[in-house]
Amino acid sequence: MTAAPAKADPKAALGVLPNWNLADLYARPDAPEIERDLKALATQAGEFRRSYEGKLAALTGPEMLAALQGYEQMQDLAGRIGSYAQLAYAGNMTDPELARFHQNISERLNDISVETLFFTLELNRIEDAVLERQLEHAPLRRYRPWLDSVRAFRPHQLSDEAERLLHEKAIAGRHAWNRLFDETMADMRFAVEGEGDKLTSNEVLNLLTDRDGKKRKAAAMGFAKGLKEQQRIFTLVTNTLAKDKEIEDKWRKFPRPVSSRNLANQVEDEVVEALVSAVKAAHPRLSHRYYKLKAKWMGVEALDFWDRNAPLPRDDDRLIPWPEAQRTVLEAYHEFSPELADVGRRFFDRNWIDAPSRPGKDPGAFAHPTVPSAHPYLLLNYNGRTRDVMTLAHELGHGVHQVLAGPQGALLADTPLTLAETASVFGEMLTFQSLLARESDPAKKRILLAGKVEDMLNTVVRQVAMHNFETRLHDERRSGELMPERIAEIWLETQREALGGGIKLPKDSEYGVYWSYIPHFIHVPFYVYAYAFGDCLVNSLYAVYRNAGDGFAEKYLEMLRAGGSKRHKELLAPFGLNAADPAFWSKGLDVVSGFIDELEAM
Question: How many domains does the structure of the chain reveal?
Answer without folding.
Answer: 1
